[in-house]
Amino acid sequence: MCGIIGYTGPLDSKKILLEGLSQLEYRGYDSAGIALCMENSRIQLVRHTGKVSNLKKGCEDIRQVSHCGLGHTRWATHGGVTTENTHPHRAGRVILVHNGIIENYHQLTTDFHLEGKLLSETDSEVAAWVLESLYDGNPAEAISKLVTHLKGSYSFCMMFEDHPGEIYAIRNVSPLVAAYTHSGSFVASDLTALIPYTRQYFVVPEDHILRLTSYKVHLYDLDLKEQEPEILEVNWNMDAAMKNGFPHFMLKEIHEQPDALKNTILPRLSKGLPDFTDDQIPDDVFKDCNQVQIVACGTAMHAGMAARALMEPLLRIPVTVSIASEFRYENPLVDDKTLVIIISQSGETIDTLAALRLAKSYGSRTLSVVNVKGSTIARESDFVLYTHAGPEIAVASTKAYSVQLAALYMVCCRMALVREKYSVAEAEDFMKKLLDSIPAMEAMIEKKDMVKALVTHLINKPDAFFIGRGLDYAFSLEGALKLKEISYIHAEAYAAGELKHGTIALITQEVPVIAIATQENVFLKTISNIREVKARGAFVILLTKESMNVEPGIADIQINIPDIGDRFTVFPIAVVLQLIAYYASVGKNLDVDQPRNLAKSVTVE
């Protein structure tokens, strides 16, 4: 969740660190700090609670130029939001920033007799003091010893006062990327902090020690043998991480969805059929399994729910969707005949990564759907299907959700083809309808002013309900999540037929109900459910297709999407649901891109 940036080189490190932390603000945080190595080799710390803008003000009096330093944005876990708990932490000669959680910090406090030394409540300061206790002048040796004492997840970046101009790092689960350029050496928790300086980088491997100097980046294993990193290249430019005239990243990323779908679908389309040859995914992966297990968290899990509603009736094999944090503790029924599909935008989500490792231990074949090249989940999966959303800066996921769905729809089509549930002609028709969803999304983006007008009926309400059946219910889950996470309106999604079994007790006068009715086979049933809530005073917003015959008075507001195949309505519906949440947040004058308590990449349990 937290952000890390480190730099050593000829440029002004203070400027680079503050700009880097600004680029990392989207990850979610509540305090920020930097450590600067000054000319006298003394390391100066500046730490502030609140936004990076507070930290920038606190650094205005620093006139001396530093050429080496670390920056950090903290999302509070151990200890509250205080200056003392803000990173970087100083422990004797050691300066340390940390992403992750050290699970055995309390035992380490006792084992290394740290009780009288700690100035914060954080597990991170404990790790810094343990490193100081092990340090005898050789940073790499001390770091190698440190990790043998730790349980948990971590990305550490460290400076040592007697090694000026050098930065050291190591990670376990929590991500780090690094790069060497003519402007110096960089390390960061996220590529967005590096893009202004280079397009070439490498993912720091787990359990490897990184040493940055102003003229070289060194990588060592835990036996201190130097290793060659695998250099990767960013396939998007800095403009993709800028607002480009939009008031918020979320609105920009909603608009980017049609192009993101094209980038994900078209390179994998051959003679009108889905083709994963370039992804090196053989057909036997889809043909030899007797069940599919989809594992993900949050929005990615909702993409999995929509995929399940599509896959299971078509493929006629069991398709199960599990929340990653539950899957890893429930002794799941998977084996070597199970295809486990792992979905993660960042490729670093810790619960999802743990679920992947568990599935592999059962012998299951694993296919990950990931947006970030070289991420841990991508590297550890048997097969990986990269989506091409580009960087997604807003915490609330929009285009990443759409491209995950597109990838899963293509997987479903390929599975139906190789398992002989589809003829070639049927598979071609499926893909044509998938492509038809792109102009349908564009049409709904054009209706954003209509959506903006309807949120006046939401923003002053404490609750909202989403209802639908089948695929529409799967869409509803994501709609409710979007509304609650950025507008703070309590929102819940229910299968429309379940209303009578308790939920309808919550329907009172003027309670907003967003009803989704795009599926022909259950359309009339959903309309009956809408009548039930309408009869109890609900304010109904109906999302349906232009061709659906809806009697006057069924809904207070009706928004029609273009007439496309029932299975593909998720794509234009997603746009509408995202816009509802966006304009509700704007209408309440909230921080759209950085909602409270949330982070973009969840790398702690």
Explain what you see:
Keywords: Aminotransferase, Glutamine amidotransferase, Repeat, Transferase. Residues 2-215 form the Glutamine amidotransferase type-2 domain. Residues 282-421, 454-595 form the SIS domain. Its EC number is 2.6.1.16. This is Glutamine--fructose-6-phosphate aminotransferase [isomerizing]. This protein is of the alpha/beta class and 605 residues long. The chain folds into three domains: 3-234, Glutamine Phosphoribosylpyrophosphate, subunit 1, domain 1; 244-422, Glucose-6-phosphate isomerase like protein, domain 1 (Rossmann fold), CATH 3.40.50; 446-590, Rossmann fold, CATH 3.40.50. Helix content is 33%, strand content 24%. The protein contains 18 helices and 27 strands. The protein has an eight-stranded antiparallel sheet with strand order 3-2-4-1-10-9-11-15, with helices on one face. Helix 13 (399-418) runs antiparallel to helix 14 and helix 14 runs parallel beside helix 18 (570-587). The longest helix is centred in the last third of the chain and has 22 residues, at 424-445. The termini are close together. The mean pLDDT is 92.
